[in-house]
From TrEMBL:
PANTHER family: 1-ACYL-SN-GLYCEROL-3-PHOSPHATE ACYLTRANSFERASE (PTHR10434:SF40)
InterPro entries: Plipid/glycerol_acylTrfase
Protein name listed in UniProt: 1-acyl-sn-glycerol-3-phosphate acyltransferase
Keyword GTP-binding in annotation: no
Phospholipid/glycerol acyltransferase domain boundaries: 34-144
CDD domains given in the database record: LPLAT_AGPAT-like
Pfam families, alphabetized: Acyltransferase
Molecular function in Gene Ontology: acyltransferase activity
Source lineage: Bacteria, Bacillati, Bacillota, Bacilli, Lactobacillales
Amino acid sequence: MFYHFIRPVARFIVWLLNGHLHVNHKERIPAGNYILAAPHRTWWEPILFALAASPKEFMFMAKIELFKNPLLRFILKHAHAFPVDRKHPGPSALKTPINGLRKGNYSLIIFPSGTRHSSEMKGGTIAIAKLSNKPIVPVVYQGPLTFTGLLKRQPLEVCFGEPFMIDRKIKLTHENEAMLDNKLKKAWDKVDYEQNPNFHYQPK
């Protein structure tokens, strides 16, 4: 219920601040639940991705420190976020999204690098896709990387790539995970180039 309330509020705020959210290749999104996997470039990407892929509802990981604030904890929990300790991730970091995807309630937004400005892929995304048997949909954001740029109403571009499955028979060895991580990175590069051949991400 809260999610249904907060989504149009978020959409209005994005429109008020910027007014230029462009969604590209939404037709590539598969039916059913899926995993939206993106390189992490700004703190507002989860909001834009959730708006771009609506009416689907999403769950997402949030660092456990954010749940210490009572008001923020209320908002996050009712927006389908679940806490993850980045230093010591427990079994719930995998079980919670896998169960959510399997039960058919929500899809998942995830940033395999874990934090902004990092290109190193953390474990989890491939395992979640394999164990839940749900497709990975590459998605990228191109647009302002600072709040000032957002207020200058620079265009916000969200572009979806082609979904792909992780073979349930594949063993998640270090080599296989590295290969699949590289496949995802190449998918991001392809979507970035497709959206704008001159685009080059430069962390602010």
